[in-house]
Amino acid sequence: MLGRSTFGLSMCLLKWLPTCLVDWFLLAVTRLMLGDTARFGLDRPRVGPLELKNVSGKTPVLDVGTLDKIKSGDIKIRPGIRRLLRHQTVEFVDGRQENYDAIILATGYKSNVPSWLKESEMFSEKDGLPKRAFPNGWKGNCGLYAVGFTKRGLLGASIDAKNIADDIQSCWRAEAKQLSAISWPHFLQKYV
Questions:
Q1: Is 14 in the same domain as 68?
Q2: Residue 78 within any structural domain of the chain
Q3: In terms of residue numbers, what domain contains 176?
Q4: pLDDT of 97 above 90
Q5: What family, per the record (predicted)?
């Protein structure tokens, strides 16, 4: 923002202004720069980013590249998940069901997964973390993946993300190979 990080600008403004005014300024500038994100399904918190951080410990983060993908329709925002069904089908709280190649959870810093995902094999009810220890807690059943639950910061999250990407690629290749074996006559398979 204005050639500076939002955090750096906030800290500078907080030297002279109260939190509520800095929050108001940040929200106004963000709306000018990003537009009304609510029309894309990204509802903004009712309080400013600094108050939100002070009250809940949560930090609002929005990658501009991701927002561009949302605006173009490459990424679609969906409501909360009611439950995961077999064969990588998701049922949303509005009753709609959709199939996905992969399901990746993005839940924030403190896991509340057991409160909304009715699945007992991958996540512990006690702390909401994967039952399997690092580095094996990233993969569940039916295409369920989890990144960043390792308490190992960005390094742990990047290891999880790479494992997931490799697994999705492996699944995709296996499925593509299986489909090509069905689609091509046997005598042509060695040339494909």
A1: yes
A2: no
A3: 103-183
A4: yes
A5: Belongs to the FMO family.
Nearest to 157 by CA among 141, 137, 171, 142: 137
Q: What is the arithmetic mean of pLDDT over 88-105?
A: 85
**Residues 66, 110 within the same domain:** no
User: Longest C-alpha distance within the chain, in Å?
Assistant: 77
Same-domain pairing of 127 and 61: no
Radius of gyration, alpha carbons of the chain: 21
Q: Is there a domain that residue 132 lies in? A: yes
Residue 108: per-residue pLDDT: 58
DSSP-assigned letters across all residues of 7-70: HHHHHHHTTTS-HHHHHHHHHHHHHHHH--GGGGT-PPPSS-HHHHHHHH-------HHHHHHH
The yes-or-no verdict on residue 192 having pLDDT over 50 is: no
Q: How confident is the model at residue 109 (pLDDT cuts 50, 70, 90)?
A: low
Query: Which of 30, 50, 72 is where one domain is finished?
Result: 72
Last residue of a domain, one of 53, 72, 91: 72
Q: What percent of the chain has pLDDT over 90?
A: 5
